[in-house]
Amino acid sequence: MNRHLLLPLALGAALLTSACSTLEPALPEARASVPKEWPQTAASSPAVAAAPNPAEDLGWRDFFRDPALQQLVTLALDQNRDLRVAVLNVERARSLYRIQRADRLPSLAASGSLTRSGGESLPTTDAYRAEIGTTNFELDLFGRVHQLNAAALQGYLASEETQRSVHLTLVAEVAQLYLTLGADRELLRLSEATLASQEASLRLIERRHQLGAVSSLDVSQARTLVESARASAANYAGIVAADTSALALLIGQPVPADLLPADFKAEKLALLPVAAGLGSELLLRRPDVLAAEHQLRAANANIGAARAAFFPSITLTAGVGTASDDLSNLFHSGTGVWSFVPRVTVPIFQGGRLRANLGTAKADRDIALARYEQAIQAAFREVSDALALTSSLQRQRAALDALVAATARTVELSQARYDAGQIGYLALLDAQRALFAAQQSLIRSQTAEQSNQVALYKALGGGWREQSGAD
Fold this sequence. Notes:
Layout: H1 2-17, H2 40-43, H3 60-63, H4 67-79, H5 81-102, E1 109-117, E2 125-139, H6 144-210, H7 216-251, H8 287-308, E3 313-324, E4 336-345, H9 353-419, H10 425-459
Antiparallel strand pairs: 1-2, 2-3, 3-4
């Protein structure tokens, strides 16, 4: 029996060790049509300075200096549901890959059976059987199983990159919302301070009106400014509440009071250290671009699997065991049995199914290629837009700084001239309105400048490392 058993086993081993051909086509070259360098006007921006590390290697704890913001990012990474779903999708993809990889090896199973048969004129007989073996194991002569395994692997790697992309997006969203909340809280404080100042001015003007020093028009104008400031304060109070709720949703819990932005200072964020003249090929390291690349490779591998389906497939079923009519003699000597059943399946007529599957696989590959190119183009645009805005936002903030200083001086001089009776209250009212509007514009400009830094950091692939240089 051993000599008979060695023959099929040797044949199976020879087939398993034979090199299987692959029918996967060459991976098509992506033609994203983006420049190799960033626009010169953006790269020459004073905010884009030389740096020792690329943005992707800069940890978010080194980029964000505010300790409260760091704690909020940590809470979001621990409790955000979107990130949790992304992590679970990685686990699911890993399990699917392991399932597909298992098809490359024969599976062994032990089985036992009892067959009882008989009839009206036949005696009842029992047949016992116990064996161990493999069933329907496909010899991957044309690479179909290999290509399916490769596609599953690329799908798993794509899910990992997607999880990284969700990670850095979450970090950036927390930072953006934190900045927005800080700016809105500052605007609320400005509105409340303006309201308190205008209410004090209204009381003073009302007393002067009682003494006959000013007209009723001045009182009415002062009351107009008070109500305008009151409406602005109420508006920003609602905006701050909405910002706080949105931030709570991101971190997965109510925002602790000690983690709310206490003040609004531009120096709490580091400038993004992007080296001038850095090539656009660094975008290929972005997680979303890498995910699109893995999806392209998976779709290309599926073409190889679809092509292999046109060729014959060989499956093996083999087993060794014992068989006996009596259960007590099942494992005695002389009861051994073996089986070796190779099966060849040759596709002859499938009604066009195989060609349709191949056409679908090619279309999926072309779609994945277009999405890969689109991901590169979108990444380049995000970086280019952020770089282009950097210098313009700096100039805008500098101009608004000067505007606030000038309008503050105008209010001071107008107040002195009004107290001296040289101008009417309307001129002073216009100056105060101009100062309030300039202060609001300055806060919004500072927020836009900081948000642009965060957007540039994210666009260059930064935000998924906690510490600089960490793996």
